[in-house]
Amino acid sequence: MKSCLVVRHVDFEHLGTLELLLRQAGFGMRFVEAGLDHLPVSEATDDDLAVILGGPIGAYEGAEYPFLADEMRLIERRLASHRPTLGICLGAQLMAKTLGAEVYPCGVKEIGWEEVTLTSAGTASPLRALSGVPVLHWHGDVFDLPPDAVNLASTAACPHQAFALGTHGLALQFHAEIAADEIESWLIGHAVEIAAAGISPRALREATHRHGAELHHAARQLFSEWLGRLWDLPDQPR
C-alpha cells in the first residue's frame, strides 16, 4: 500500500475531496497535527506522498511557531529527493519559502470564490481542469515564484496562485480540495478573520453551495491527473 503523510495545522481544514480520491487509489493516511505531534523529519522521504495543508499563520513566523522549521526541513528533503509533495495555502507558502522565495502579506485578504487565470504552462498541466471554475481563496499572504518553479495560475490580487516544481512538486495557494459540506466549520473557525475583513459568512456559505459541486468534479480531475503522472493509477470516477 502506498502511504501519504498529511500535515494538518487546524483540525477543520481537511483533505476534502482529495481524501476519498487517495483512498480509492490505495493510499494509507498518516496524519500529523502540526505543533502537537512529532514530525518525523528523519523519515521525510519514507512516504510516497506528502500533503501540507493550510492554516492561519505565516510561513515567515518561524520565531513565533518554531515547529515550522521542521516542516520546512521535511519539505526541503522531499523536494531535493524528488518525492511527490503537495502544498495547499500555507503548505504552498512553506514550499515557496523552502525553495528560496519570499513570502509576505499582500495587504488584502483574498477570501471568497473566484476563478484563477491559467498561464500557458497551467493550461498544459492538470490545472486545466479548473479552467472557468471558481475556486475558494482564503489567504492574506503571497509568495514570489521560487527559482526553477513554473507559475501555473494567477488572480488580480495574487500573481502566483500555483506553481510546479518538476512533476513531483505542486503548490496551490487556493483551496481546490474543499468539500462544500465542510464550509460551516471554516466559517466558525475563521469567524474573527472574516469579521475583521468585513466579509459576510452568509455570502460565503451561499457561494460555496453554488460552486461546490462544480469544483468537486474539477478537483477530482486535477488531482487524478497529477497523481496519474506520478504513479500508474486506475482511472477514478469523476
UniProtKB/TrEMBL annotation:
The keyword Disulfide bond does not apply. One of its GO terms (cellular component) is cytosol. Keywords: Glutamine amidotransferase. It holds the Pfam family GATase. Transmembrane segments: none annotated. Residues 43-180 form the Glutamine amidotransferase domain. PANTHER family: GLUTAMINE AMIDOTRANSFERASE YLR126C-RELATED. This is Glutamine amidotransferase. It comes from Devosia ureilytica. The lineage of its organism: Bacteria, Pseudomonadati, Pseudomonadota, Alphaproteobacteria, Hyphomicrobiales.
